[in-house]
Automatic annotation (TrEMBL), chain A:
Keywords: DNA damage, DNA repair, Metal-binding, Nucleus, Transcription, Transcription regulation, Zinc, Zinc-finger. Belongs to the TFB4 family. Component of the general transcription and DNA repair factor IIH (TFIIH) core complex, which is involved in general and transcription-coupled nucleotide excision repair (NER) of damaged DNA and, when complexed to CAK, in RNA transcription by RNA polymerase II. In NER, TFIIH acts by opening DNA around the lesion to allow the excision of the damaged oligonucleotide and its replacement by a new DNA fragment. In transcription, TFIIH has an essential role in transcription initiation. It is found in: Nucleus. GO terms for biological process: nucleotide-excision repair; regulation of DNA-templated transcription. This is General transcription and DNA repair factor IIH subunit TFB4. The lineage of its organism: Eukaryota, Viridiplantae, Streptophyta, Embryophyta, Tracheophyta. One of its GO terms (cellular component) is transcription factor TFIIH holo complex. It holds the Pfam family Tfb4.
UniProtKB/TrEMBL annotation, chain B:
Its main location: nucleus. The keyword Chloroplast does not apply. Belongs to the GTF2H2 family. Residues 362-408 form the RING-type domain. GO terms for molecular function: zinc ion binding. Residues 1-24 are annotated as: Disordered. A zinc finger (C4-type) spans 302-319. It comes from the Eukaryota. GO terms for biological process: DNA-templated transcription; nucleotide-excision repair; regulation of transcription by RNA polymerase II. It comes from Eutrema salsugineum (Saltwater cress). SUPFAM superfamilies: Cysteine-rich domain, vWA-like. This is General transcription factor IIH subunit.
Length: 300, 421
């Protein structure tokens, strides 16, 4: 793919696509307020833009019922740091305005449905897909482009119903050689983000103290891809490889797999709901009978 | 340009038997690229690169139509767990040099590429290698899921000796494949360079035996069509083809990489119990159950008995659970849930207004769709989410991403019910 070859150019200029979790159901449960969180993030974005004048930042909001672009530094004219009257740098002016619009619209949409008791997930699969489309466009733009990477600032729990879509995005990012960094600020751990960072060669981190978020962001996630070779970044403390079953969208670490299409189920079914195969009624509940047969064959 | 081509043809005739590629390296760059064909004249007589995007997109739409037409009738049912033996004929015919530098080297090179591609497209599948030399079939590697070990064995000793024997190879492979679990697809892919086969017995019987054991045998010939190979493929439901040159050989081989349409009777569908182990932290220390040794560094933990294993996929040595890496499985899921082709939006005026309302940017990449200059805003739309996309995103979404960004950006509980139907 041409895009891979072209990556040799300008390897310390970054395009940072930030996926910002704005799920209101998550933010109503946290110790830190969304506005405080946002001030850490904006300072971080400013730092990234300040590191290299060619650096570019794109922000996509990951909402509860929608996703949208809320900021693109390549669209605002130079002079990001000048004040625009309201006392806010122009950069943040447009970002906050769009974010407010987005949050209002997102809330409007989420009112339409009743939601469950547990904290709902946000639409990570949507914002990841959009980020990759944007990056693909940057690759198309010619040989000289910044090095893209994605940073997920996520707090909502994984949405098991997004499993296939999230995995598809991860594999596409891997093929494009775009690392997905992830900073998880929620309470459980996120199998999606751990796998995303592990597979794409990005950094995954779970900050312990959210009031120091800015420091975590700048010391870990501001590092451009070129410098990552020289910097000690946090090593993964294990990767959660659990999958989601196709029947109930539950996260599972053990399950049944259809031998024809590889669909995952949490319990025994007579028929595969994905491909329609009817399963033989041999005692293959457990794989042991097969494994005995297999063991006769030379070691695999 | 025409001068150059004529000269090339002339040269070819002079030493055609000797070497069909008798052109200098520097010339070949031009012949292969045909860079002049990518130019066109504009109104003022200046040379400009041709705008290929419309052509690419049309080609892509055609590919997509063929694919979706094929998928529409049947539910997607593919044999995703495959047990494939690759048989390579290293008899003296493999030393011939009609393929450069030799048939043997070319076969090895493209089988290597094929093995990598195969494991990418067929998680959980296994390959074994068999070679024919001196009229005898040898097992190079047993069935296994690691590309590196196969490639190493293949490249180990390249030599071409003696006669070839199709029957001996089939007997050996049949013996191996008879032991694989019944849910697996049993396949044989033979790369045959000889024009004869020296067999100890009746090969027809062997072919019937293979047919009975549901071995799907395919042959790629390197010299000319042979009746016995064709017969073998017809009987067992495989593909028979003869490569005319290196590029053709490569294409023929790669045709076997995607999973073949499963024929219900060929493998019994089954539910297999599997575990998805967690990967342990880098630098953690544990005693692995596979090597019975202290290992520092990442390993995987069996979710049922918590034993540590070093590599996936494997079978837990303690409790026997099949352990796989779930991302490995997930790689093939886009086959199962393909996204519907996008509809082309008729260009210009009539729709211009409604489009302006819906947003003038591609929903995926934010590129303007009211494109100034060449194509007046050609775009496509998704039937489900009604968002508009540019042609480049259309291709990217269907051929690499396999998600519609619009549909993924809408909360819909319906995906759950869709699965339970
Ligand atoms: Zn069920
Ligand atoms: Zn289930
Ligand atoms: Zn199935
Ligand atoms: Zn071990
Ligand atoms: Zn175990
Ligand atoms: Zn686009
Ligand atoms: Zn859509």
């Amino acid at each position: 793919m041409a895009s891979v070859a072209s990556k040799l150019y300008s390897d310390d200029v970054s395009l940072l696509v930030l996926l910002l979790d704005t799920n209101p159901f998550f933010w109503s449960t946290t110790s830190i307020k969304f506005s405080q969180f946002l001030s850490h993030v904006l300072a971080f974005l400013n730092a990234v833009l300040g590191l290299n004048q060619l650096n570019q930042v794109v922000v996509i909001a990951t909402g509860y019922s929608s996703c949208d672009y809320i900021y693109d530094s390549s669209l605002t004219p130079n002079g990001n740091f000048e004040s625009s009257g309201s006392g806010m740098p122009a950069l943040f002016g447009s970002l906050l305005e769009k974010l407010e619009d987005f949050a209002a619209k997102d809330e409007e949409l989420s009112k339409e449905e009743e939601h469950e008791d547990r904290i709902a997930s946000s639409l990570l699969s949507g914002s990841l897909s959009m980020a990759l489309c944007y990056i693909q466009r940057v690759f198309r733009s010619g040989h000289l482009h910044p090095q893209p990477r994605i940073l997920c600032l996520q707090g909502s729990p994984d949405g098991p119903e997004q499993y296939v879509a999230v995995m598809n995005s991860i594999f596409s990012a891997q093929r494009l050689m775009v690392p997905i960094d992830s900073c998880y600020i929620g309470t459980q751990n996120s199998a999606f983000l751990q796998q995303a960072s592990y597979i794409t060669g990005g950094v995954h981190h779970t900050p312990k103290q959210l009031d120091g978020l800015f420091q975590y962001l700048t010391t870990i996630f501001a590092t451009d891809l070129h410098s990552r070779g020289f910097v000690q970044l946090p090593k993964p403390v294990g990767v959660d490889f659990r999958a989601s079953c196709f029947c109930h969208k539950k996260t599972i670490d053990m399950g049944y797999i259809c031998s024809v299409c590889l669909s995952i189920f949490c319990e025994h079914h007579k028929k595969c709901s994905t491909c329609g195969s009817v399963f033989g009624q041999s005692k293959l509940d457990d794989v042991s009978s097969v494994s005995n047969k297999k063991r006769k064959a030379p070691d695999t | 340009m025409s001068n150059q081509r004529k000269r090339l043809n002339g040269e070819r005739e002079e030493d055609d038997e000797e070497d069909a590629e008798g052109i200098g390296e520097w010339e070949r760059a031009y012949v292969d690229d045909r860079s002049w064909e990518a130019l066109q004249e504009d109104e003022s007589g200046l040379l400009r690169p041709i705008d290929n995007s419309a052509i690419y997109h049309a080609q892509y739409r055609r590919r997509l139509r063929i694919l979706s037409a094929a998928a529409a009738g049947t539910r997607i049912q593919k044999g995703l767990i495959r047990y494939l033996y690759i048989v390579i004929d290293f008899s003296r015919a493999a030393a011939e040099t009609d393929f450069r530098p030799s048939r043997m080297a070319i076969m090895a090179k493209h089988v290597e590429a094929f093995i990598r591609e195969f494991f990418d497209q067929n998680p959980l599948s296994q390959i074994g290698l068999v070679s024919i030399k001196n009229g005898v079939a040898h097992t190079l590697t047993d069935l296994g899921g690691s590309p590196e070990s196969h490639i190493q064995a293949l490249m180990g000793k390249l030599e071409a000796l003696g006669d070839s024997s199709l029957q001996n190879a089939l007997e050996l492979v049949h013996e191996h494949l008879n032991q694989v679990p019944s849910y697996g697809h049993r396949e044989v892919l033979i790369l045959y360079s000889a024009l004869c086969t020296c067999d100890p017995g009746d090969i027809m019987e062997t072919i019937q035996k293979c047919k009975k054991s549901k071995l799907r045998c395919s042959v790629i010939g390197l010299s000319a069509e042979m009746f016995i190979c064709k017969h073998l493929c017809q009987e067992t439901g495989g593909l028979y083809s003869v490569a005319v040159d290196e590029v053709h050989l490569k294409d023929l081989l790669l045709e076997h990489a995607p999973p073949p349409p499963a024929i219900a009777e060929f493998a019994v569908a089954n539910l297999i119990k599997m575990g998805f182990p967690q990967r342990a932290a880098e630098g953690s220390m544990a005693i692995c159950s596979c090597h019975k040794d202290v290992k520092i560094g990442a390993g995987y933990t069996c979710p049922r008995c918590k034993a540590r294993v070093c590599e996936l996929p494997t079978e837990c040595t303690i409790c026997g659970l099949t352990l796989v890496s779930s991302p490995h499985l997930a790689r093939s899921y886009h086959h199962l849930f393909p996204i519907a082709p996008f509809d082309e939006v008729p260009t210009l005026s009539s729709l211009n207004d409604s489009r302006r309302k819906l947003g003038k940017c591609c929903f995926g990449c934010q590129q303007s769709l009211l494109g100034a200059g060449n194509k007046q805003g050609a775009c496509v739309t998704c039937r489900n989410c009604k968002h508009y996309f540019c042609l480049d995103c259309d291709i990217y979404i269907h051929e690499s991403l396999h998600n519609c960004p619009g549909c993924e950006s809408i909360r819909r509980p319906k995906s759950v019910s869709l699965m339970e139907e």
